[in-house]
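#help-structures
NK: newbie question, is this the right format to request a structure? protein is ASCH domain-containing protein
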Amino acid sequence: MTDLSHLPDRAISIMQPWAWLIVNGYKHLENRDWPTKFRGPVCIHAGKKRDASAWEDTTAGIHPVTGELASHFDHDRTIERLGGIVGVAEIVGCVRASPSEWFVGKYGFIISNARPVDFIPCKGALSFFEWKGRLL
């Protein structure tokens, strides 16, 4: 079994392609209907469900929020990963408003230092969750 000790214990589940956009450095804000005081490193879990319209836009090179051409999305097959850990990031803040093109929710979790990791299949959960005991 792979050593997972270098990865954060907590994860947050995010639908694809949003998880892919975060871990590949395009999206620096995660929209939620609830606030958080959590700050620190977190694994990004790609849920088993995907946002169909955002998926179609992203894979077609269209920004899924603004609808503008976004040919800079350099996607590969990793966008198709569902049901597991796909990256790590840091939650550095939570805001109720933002000028970011990515902000469309009640709250935005500000994300920094995101990067992909090799896919680790595991079950997701709501809110922040301990993922290492949920491996598949």
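mod (FA): yep, format's fine, and the tokens are attached above. The radius of gyration is 14 Å.
NK: thank you!
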